[in-house]
Write a structure and sequence with these properties.
With 193 residues, the protein is an alpha+beta fold. The protein contains 5 helices and 5 strands, in the order αβαββαββαα. It has one domain (7-187): Ribosomal protein L5 (50s Ribosomal Protein L5, Chain: A), CATH 3.30.1440. It has helices at 7-24, 51-65, 97-111, 167-177, 185-188; strands at residues 35-43, 70-73, 88-95, 131-136, 156-162. Helix 1 crosses helix 4 (167-177).
């Protein structure tokens, strides 16, 4: 019995990895960049005021990710934001291995084309250390969400962590996967500052 391998992981091993190594001039296979994890976060500042919305958001993020989402709590009290210590302030889930590739495949193929007035993800979300961060404004772009059961339209932050050592390497990796990034000449030609 063969073990299930996600489509994008198979594509990475067969085509992307050798082509990326050649393009970036990396001879060591272990040094070629790869995606290590994807984390999804929803900030929910008024979560303690509405417990039902918090539960609905946890359920929605769990459906989107295919893995149980956890509630994040404040570490200290902040009086200006009316937050007490241990108040729920957000929801997060971290995806690795099979679930990570499945989520990325669904985002690239199904969810991103459903974003209203979509012209590509901004290429300004690279942090210089090989990670890419971007936000989406509506969770309804994911097919797992039942539009009729939504209590509130919320956005989320998606962080893709790679083993790349620069923004140029991460940009090339994500473009090879087919992530719909806007073209960036500086990252394309490795002239970023």
């Amino acid at each position: 019995m063969s073990q299930y391998v996600p489509r994008l992981l198979e594509e990475y091993n067969k085509n992307i990895k050798p082509a990326l190594g050649k393009e970036l001039g990396i001879k060591n296979d272990m040094r070629i960049p790869k995606i290590s994890k994807i984390s999804l976060n929803i900030g929910f500042g008024q979560a303690r005021l509405n417990d039902n919305q918090l539960k609905a958001a946890v359920e929605e993020l769990t459906n989107i990710a295919g893995q149980k989402a956890v509630i994040t709590k404040s570490k200290k009290a902040i009086s200006n934001f009316k937050i007490r210590e241990n108040d729920p302030v957000g929801i997060k889930v971290t995806l690795r291995s099979v679930k990570m590739y499945e989520f990325l495949d669904r985002f690239i193929s199904v969810a991103s084309p459903r974003i209203r007035d979509f012209r590509g993800l901004s290429s300004k979300g690279f942090d210089g250390f090989g990670n890419y961060n971007f936000g989406i404004t509506e969770q309804i772009i994911f097919p797992e969400i039942n539009y009729d059961r939504i209590k509130k339209v919320t956005g989320m932050n998606i962080n893709i962590v790679t083993t790349a050592q620069s923004s140029h390497e991460a940009y090339k990796l994500l473009m090879a996967f087919g992530l719909p990034l806007k073209e960036n000449k500086k990252l394309e030609n490795n002239t970023e500052k």
